[in-house]
Design goal:
Length: 204
């Protein structure tokens, strides 16, 4: 099944990482409701914590980027990760669309979230949610920009049985199949992964 963006032919902004919206500021605070196969949870974003990250995430959600994707890397008691699109064509467009870092103003405590990255100025579209305190991430430059305010129990229950096998880490360089085949690969090889059905901006 194609995601909403794919079903509609994708929005002009999703097809074009140079589109003007990617340079626009998002709200100073906003919430994102994520519907999954385990239930729903809500992320609250505070732009002042990491403005560039908050802006990128806002527009990705607004344009439907995350719809019909998978929680592909879930390490029990540590974090859950999402943000590689189910549509491989979209994945190809965004795979290397990095943006500059934010200073780390918050701490990677349980329930906070940030962009995953392989090094300086390498954030793209992947998000991880801390399911325990991961304070070592602070010194490595991972800048949280919000926290889960509803449904943390849902995040805790996302399927973690595959561990690193289904998504590996960006640094490990083993995400090629996820980008090349998207949901087709994950659903074939790792059918128990939970699905991110859709993500939507909601009012605080």
């Amino acid at each position: 099944m194609l995601g909403l963006g794919a079903a509609l032919g994708q929005t002009p902004a999703l097809r074009d990482p140079t589109h003007k919206i990617w340079g626009e500021h998002g709200p100073e605070a906003y919430r994102v409701r994520i519907d999954s196969t385990k239930g729903s949870f809500v992320l609250e974003v505070t732009r002042s914590q990491a403005p560039r990250g908050a802006d990128r995430f806002y527009h990705l959600v607004e344009e439907g980027f995350y719809d019909d994707s998978r929680f592909f890397r879930v390490i029990a008691g540590r974090f859950t990760q999402f943000g590689i699109p189910g549509d491989s064509a979209l994945g190809g467009i965004w795979r290397n669309q990095s943006f500059p870092d934010d200073p780390v103003r918050g701490s990677n405590t349980r329930g906070t979230f940030a962009f995953a990255m392989t090094g300086p100025d390498a954030r793209t579209t992947q998000i991880y949610i801390n399911t325990s305190d991961q304070l070592q991430q602070d010194a490595q430059g991972f800048a949280p920009f919000g926290k889960v305010v509803e449904g943390m129990g849902v995040v805790d229950q996302l399927y973690s049985g595959y561990g690193e096998r289904s998504g590996s880490g960006m640094r490990a360089g083993r995400q090629g199949k996820l980008f090349e085949e998207g949901n087709r690969y994950l659903d074939r090889e790792f059918p128990l992964l939970d699905k991110l059905i859709r993500a939507r901006i909601i009012r605080p």
